[in-house]
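Fold this sequence, please.
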Amino acid sequence: MLDQKDPLFYSEGVIATASGTSSLCGPTSVMNWLQLRHQNAYSKIQLVKFVQLIGNDLRAQRVEINNGLTEPQLLKFLEIYNSYLEENSEYVYVNRGELQPLDILNNKPQILMLRYSEVVRYMPGRNRDDFKIPFSGAHYVLKVGAIDDQILVIDPENPTYLTRLKLEETKEGSMKVFRVRPQSKRDLQSFAYGVPLIWSMTGLIQEK
């Protein structure tokens, strides 16, 4: 499986320099799905070159894969990917509002769009205005299976470890929310940034 920060991304020029920032979690998750489907038939250099090829096509459409892809942009990435592989698969994005837990708690490969935010703890006696705005962001992972209320994901930050995330459905006001959290200390250390964060799933991409 491919790591989104694999040195080949730098040496092959997908990421311009070793100090350059990038967010290749979406394209890398697609490549890991390809490996899963074809039982690791591709070498790392083939996968990296494939990301580069599709990235060049997207760049011609003014989409820069290093900046992190939105869900529609990742669907476009998959569309180009399909054309090169001459596959007839169709992929769709499904928003969390259209999902039930059993749509996720299954063994169907899906790319999950996760959002995260910093855990903020206010201390008594401190002025709340002194606290900085918590950081937040988005991250794609490849879901490959489920056990009871846990989903099993390949995280492009650490693709050699199968991370277990507990899925919990809740609400924020009238909005449906799917929270996910690492199931064990090892899962926490291995997942994404290795620190406690608030994670929620906003939607997923799957085969139609």
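DSSP finds six helices and seven strands in the chain. The helical segments are 7-11, 25-37, 44-59, 71-85, 101-104, 185-190.
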